[in-house]
Design brief:
Structural class: alpha+beta
Distance between the termini: 109 Å
CATH class: Mainly Beta
Number of strands: 10
Shape: rod-shaped
Number of domains: 1
CATH architecture: Sandwich
CATH topology: Immunoglobulin-like
Oligomer: single chain
Order of helices and strands: HEEEEEEEEEE
């Protein structure tokens, strides 16, 4: 009888050890899930905070018109623009013949805030057109900077926006919300 009781005791110890091992495995799994979730939340919060402090706006937009150049009246063949004056074909009231209008730069102004951003994304008429690096020393609060872009031809009034691009702790980039719209009237490109 004594040996039967010993076998029963060993069985209870084995069950207890297996149960303890299962509890430890469950604790490790739950810990991994919680730490992964909290790390992702912390990164998202850090990135959002950087965007809150990365306040920029548009101070002005460089928009230029390309006119037909000439050396004599015979080169001005477009009806209404038959006079060669100041090296360009002009109409009767002195208005030049415009071949195209292009946006070639955006002057951004940093508002107050301590956010650090690497690049500025330029958006024209809802289309991202360029991502430009910020000058090496960055922009101080309330400082302005002209950023040149590859000229974009416009055929109608345009809406220009900019958005700071911040770099997260893990090295990934995040584009912050876009600035208010800066309207460019086609007639202002001269």
């Amino acid at each position: 009888m004594e040996s039967i009781n010993n076998k029963k005791g060993i069985s209870e110890v084995v069950v207890w050890i297996i149960g303890l091992a299962l509890v430890l495995v469950l604790i490790v799994i739950v810990w991994q899930v919680i730490s992964t979730f909290t790390n992702k939340q912390a990164e998202t919060t850090e990135s959002a905070a950087s965007c809150l402090d990365a306040n920029i706006g548009i101070q002005s937009v460089t928009c230029e018109a390309t006119t037909r150049s000439c050396t004599s009246d015979t080169e001005c063949t477009t009806p209404g623009y038959a006079t060669c004056a100041s090296g360009r074909c002009e109409g009767g009231s002195g208005n030049p013949e415009i071949l195209s209008r292009e946006i070639s730069g955006v002057t951004i102004k940093r508002d107050s805030g301590s956010g650090v951003w690497e690049n500025v994304k330029v958006v024209i008429n809802g289309e991202p057109t360029a991502t430009i690096p910020v000058p090496d020393d960055g922009l101080e609060p309330l400082e302005s900077e002209l950023i040149s872009i590859t000229p974009i031809t416009i055929t109608e009034d345009a809406e220009v926006k900019v958005a700071p691009v911040v770099v997260n702790a893990d090295g990934t980039e995040r584009t912050c919300p876009e600035s208010r719209i800066y309207a460019v009237k086609l007639s202002s490109c001269a």
